[in-house]
Amino acid sequence: MIIATGFFDGVHLGHRFLLKQLVDAASERGDRSMIVTFWPHPRNVLQDEARNLRLLTSLEEKKALLLDLGVDTVEVLNFTKEFSRLTTEQYLKEYIIDRFGGTAILLGYDNRIGCNPGSTDEIASLAKSLGLGVIRADKFDDTAGVTISSTKIRNLLTEGDVTEASKMLGYNYSLYGVVVAGNQIGRTIGFPTANMQLYEPLKLVPACGVYCVQVETLGRKFMGMCNIGYRPTISSEHALTIETNIFDFNEDIYGLDIRISFITKIRDERKFSSIEVLKSQLCEDRRKCLALI
Q1: Using an 8 Å Cβ cutoff, are 176 and 216 in contact?
Q2: Distance between CA atoms of residues 166 and 156, nearest Å
Q3: pLDDT value at position 226?
Q4: What is residue 188's predicted lDDT score, i.e. its pLDDT?
Q5: How many percent of the chain have pLDDT more than 70?
């Protein structure tokens, strides 16, 4: 078993570059490939100031993305403070070798393993001393020479730049949840919306604004526009909502799954002087989305 280990939040292009090397190495050796990952995120456990850290992928999304890329097996370890105290040697021996039957480990250019991580060279040397084969992965840079990271992608989404974030991910960033009842105001002005409650509360929600999106529900795909924000024109409650107007759609989907994938941001959320002015702006937003489609 050839194993790579890490959190892999977002399974972005940098991760995918490494994962291809893992899958290719396993294929060349006639072996199987495995990802050993963790949940929750180490920062959520170890750093009090990071308790509000939001993630690019839920655990189930991450596992699905990894398997779709050809990895044979994904194992998830519960990350606790006690687990975090494992040394590099303990982690490699007790988990990679003894628990998962690893015969080789793939190391990224900046892999850190255990509570006392040395350099990647030192980790490679220790792994070899334990009888593990070591595969050193190449470093990925995009065509502009920019290093891609989960942190950079989170920052882009926080700024509302879903287009650039999706480029770094290699797919359109999405939110997944269930349709819940709203206040029905959208329906009265010709723009009924599906209000979403996320299945994963730690999922990162992009910045407030109006977005052109692809919608998946009822096993089909539609286009639409999504408003993320506090609806200042119609509500004084400071409660964040994620509501999507699905184009050419008029079915009851309360209680059903919905996934919205972001294409681009149309505008910031703002307060309008009246419902009529809001309606006029929504018509313009819809025209912009349809032009993009």
Answers
A1: no
A2: 9
A3: 97
A4: 67
A5: 94
Question: Where does the chain show beta strands of DSSP type E?
Answer: 2-5, 33-39, 73-78, 104-107, 133-136, 174-180, 194-198, 209-217, 220-229, 241-246, 257-267
Return d(Cα 54, Cα 205) in angstroms, integer: 8
Structure tokens at 268: 């910031």
Task: Choose among 273, 169, 181, 179: nearest CA to 224.
Answer: 179
The backbone torsions φ and ψ at residue 143, rounded to the nearest 5 degrees and listed phi first, read -65, -20
Burial class (CB in 10 A: 0-12, 13-18, 19+), 162: buried
The pLDDT of residue 276 is 87
Question: 261 phi and psi, to 5 degrees?
Answer: -110, 130
| Phi, psi for residue 248 in degrees, rounded to 5 | 50, 50
Q: Sign of the C-alpha dihedral, residues 270, 271, 275, 277?
A: negative
- The residues of the chain scoring below 70 in pLDDT are 48-49, 117, 142-145, 184-186, 188, 232, 235-237
Question: What does the pLDDT read at residue 157?
Answer: 98
User: The whole model's pTM is what?
Assistant: 0.93
Q: Give the span between the Cα atoms of 70 and 20, in whole angstroms.
A: 8
